[in-house]
Amino acid sequence: MLTDADVQPVIAKARRRLIPFLFLLYIVAYLDRINVGFASLQMNEALGFSATVYGFGAGIFFIGYTLFEVPSNVLLARVGARRWIARIMISWGLVSSAMMLVSSAPMFYALRFLLGVAEAGFFPGIIFYLTRWFPPRERARTVAAFMTATLAAGIIGGPISGALLTLNGFGGLAGWQWVFLLEGLPAVVLGFVVLRALTERPHDAEWLTPSERAALIRRLDEEAAATIESDTSNALLATRTWLCAIVYFTIPVSSYGIGFWLPQMLKSSSGASALTIGLLSAIPYIVGAAAMVVAGRHSDRNGERRWHVLIAALVSACGLGLATLGTGTSWTVFSLSIATLGYASMYGPFWALTTSSMRGVGAAAAIALVNSIGNTGGFVGPYLLGAINDATHRFAAGLWVIAAILALGGSVVLFVPEK
To answer: For residue 200, what is the DSSP state?
Structure first.
């Protein structure tokens, strides 16, 4: 049997090779999801969108995403990650850029829905792809390293989107139209890069020596012997899969509730310019990125997943509660940084727990189901905040509802069985 000393250098080499590229892809993906939050600073007024209309349109992305998630990931498992991820990126980049053409609420809803359909399968496809490269005990830190891209998108996307909004009127386009046009094109370009740059499996890795390939494949085979080769139907019906989906639902409720409304909340508390709001919005994401990496490493080092998820959920809920206790810019940034720190710390341990007991096409289907059901929270969070804000003219009640969902849903992780 291989020792850690035999295989750890190979795993580290694979991580250095794969994660930076996947990180870049996910930055582009996440930015195309959340840039509507910055576009809304101009778009809502220009097109006469209420908070409810905006919240519904921002969230309907996840309905399209959810409906096509499982079939997309099953196809990825059958045709290969390289070709399918390239297809996803090119199609979503084109739809994202087409958002510049929005002129009415129905068109806004339709294009956001189509964006979800186009991107369906990307994230669970990457998670499934990582299971082919990294053994279970390495996954929390690996997933965390990859998923810090969601926070990096906020760190760099806020200032970039804020700067693009200042192009208002340039070339006959509004600033919000420039945001959609220029932030959608990188996905198209990177989709073609994926076809050449992404290595499908360890067996195909010419950048590993023959002995390194053999060591990594052997370790993965050893770990796979302890997991279940599930067919699709069994994986989709498993109680464990559905409990994981309930837990995951709580994360997008918080992350997208904050992500889609953060610019509006900062505008309400500060009255600052779009560029200043873009810079301020980066702060919670910087805090969350650091917390995500630390939590993933700590979870791997201790081999513990459930309490890492639950404690992080409670921290995020507390941050959302704190946000309702003050209205100043500093307080808003501080409290939402705590909320972001919490939900970001959930990702690595959660996906390590979810992917620890299955392999094969069944695993691809289960990962997609967990992600698709969970991501309906990406519709619920933004829509709730918008509807409650329209009714109360404040964000406080909506933030308390999301905090309660996090605390209650996160507690379900204690009931997820080992296998």
So the answer is: -
Amino acid (one-letter) located at 373: I
DSSP H stretches of helix in 303-328:
306-323
Q: Do residues 409 and 250 touch, judged by C-beta distance below 8 A?
A: yes
Amino acid 241: pLDDT: 85
Query: Residue 31 is encoded by which pair of tokens?
Result: 């930015």
The distance from CA 74 to its chain's CA centroid, rounded to whole angstroms, is 20
pLDDT in tens, 217-264: 888 887 766 555 555 666 667 788 889 889 999 888 888 888 778 887
Q: In this structure, what token pair is assigned to residue 271? A: 């009255």
- Rounded to whole angstroms, how far apart are CA atoms 358 and 339? 31
The count of structural domains within the chain is 1
- With contact defined as beta carbons under 8 Å apart, do 23 and 152 qualify? yes
Bridge partners, 358 (sequence order): 228
Check which CATH number belongs to the domain holding 120 and give it. Answer: 1.20.1250.20
380 CB-near residues (< 8 Å, 6+ apart)? 59, 249, 253, 405
* pTM, entire model: 0.72
- pLDDT less than 50: residues of the chain: none
CA distance 212 to 16: 14
Q: Tens of pLDDT along 45-61?
A: 899 998 888 888 888 88
What 3-state DSSP class applies to 394? coil
**Exposure of 41 in the CB half-sphere (CA atoms within 13 A):** 31
| Structural domain that includes position 300 | 4-415
Tokens representing 336 are 């939402």
Number of Cβ within 10 Å of residue 232's Cβ equals 19
Q: 4-47 and 175-197 helices cross at what angle (nearest 10)?
A: 150
